[in-house]
Structure formats: structure tokens, C-alpha cells
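We store amino acids, C-alpha cells; thus:
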Amino acid sequence: MEWENTPESSNIEDRRGESTSAGIGGGGASFGTGGMGIGAIVIVLLISYFTGLNPAVLLGGAQVVTGGGQHMASAPQPSRPAAGNDRTTSLMRHVLGETEAVWSEILPAQKGVRYTPTTMVLYTGGTQSGCGGARAAMGPFYCPADKKIYLDTSFFQEMQQKYGGGGDFAYAYVISHEVGHHVQDLLGILDRADEAKQNGSRTQANAISVRIELQADCLAGVWAANANRKWNLIDQNDIQRAVATAQAIGDDTLQKAARGYAVPDSFTHGSSAMRQKWLMTGLQSGQVDSCNTGVP
């Protein structure tokens, strides 16, 4: 992936090195580990991130305390430009800048909606978000309450160093998927989906979550297609790697690896085949309207 000559974003808030105490408690998630080693814990939490499975179940009965989906008030955090000069930080600046340039063009052109950029918060250990406490264990996520993406950069290090994943396009895929959720927010999709979830059963809510996540995969593909037209970013190897990543993180693949079988009614991100299909749909079309996954 060729990204060094693309735009850089200034919408990065670097909280790395701050005290992590703000991210623990009030509205965040707490996990009992039962003395498990950190490697095993990280594997479980990565599976939880990609599948939406309850980490407490995967951790063997540990308690999970959540904010119940409510928007939590958070302590003010100083906004500072990202201080890191490492290659991964530079990549994140560029990828976010690419999403801003692409979505600022295609969202008004295709949907008649002005694109307002999201901010990406980089942190280590824990911090506060508009949706409550953010911790590394939660993985990257988008918070609609404050319109920000939260990312502990150790997530990328774990992908690369311990699990055979990683790579520039894999990192860009993670970021652009979360930006896809921001696009859904700007289009009013997340509000409609939340209302439908509240009025349905658990199975119905899971099905809506799958459609939301598949649409974010498709929107990541839409970004990649349009970014490639502007800057010739990716080649066939990048596309093959993205498809392989979609295969590896399907709910069915990860559930079978974790417990030997899959439970479709519990899917929250979609099967391997579905994730591949919708990522490729966005890549091939470059059109937002192609990402009709049946979201309410």
C-alpha cells in the first residue's frame, strides 16, 4: 500500500502517556482474568472484538460491567496534535487524511450530505470517551456520542508481532471500517438501527448488528476504491490480503476456532463469506448505495 504521498489528518488526539485511571470504572468495561496470561487474554479479546462475542463468556465466566449503551458524560480531555513520529503513527495520520479527502468528495456527491470529519483518539491502557470508559481490551471502536474513534495503538502491535496479521492495508482496513461507522452516523443509520434494536428481540438485535458491521465493511471498500482512483494506493496483493482478512475474521470462522461450532443467531459481524462479499462489493463499485445490507 502506497500512502506516503497522501494527505495527513490533523484530527488526531494523542492521549498516549496520560494516566490510564480515567479509563477505568464509570461506564467502561471491566474484565476479571482469573490469572490468565496476557497472551491468552489478548487472543480472547481480539476474538471478542472481531466477533462481538461477550468477552466474559470467552474468559470463562468473568464479570463484565458495561454502560448499558447509555451515553456517559466524560471528563474533558485536552486536544493535542499526535506526538508520535513512528511509522505506524504516520500511517494512521495518512489513512485518516485519505478518508477525509475521499468522503468529503463522495458523500455530498453520492448522498447529498456534507462530510464532517471524525477525530481519532490514540491512547494506551485506558481513557474516557463520550460513551464511557475506553480500555485497550475493547479494541478500536467508534463512539457516536462524541463522534470520535478510539484506538489503543498496541492493537496494531499485537496484530503484527504475535498473530501473523498486520500490514499497512490491514491497519487501513481497521481505521476505514471505524470511519465507515462515522459515515453511518452522519447518514442517520446508527440512530435508526439503535431504535430498531430496542424494539426487537436479542436475535433481531444481533441481526441488525450484523447488517451494520457488514455495511461498515462495504463502506471501507468504497473508501478504498475511491482512494485508489485518486492515489493508486493498492495493488492486487493488497486486495487479496483484505479478502483473506475478511475470511479470517468472520463470525463463523472465529466461533469454530474458539468452540468448535458456529451459532448463526449469535453473529454480530457476519460470516466469512458475508464479510468478503460486502468488502468486495464496496471495492468494486465505489458507491455508497451499493452497501445496502438491509439496515433499518
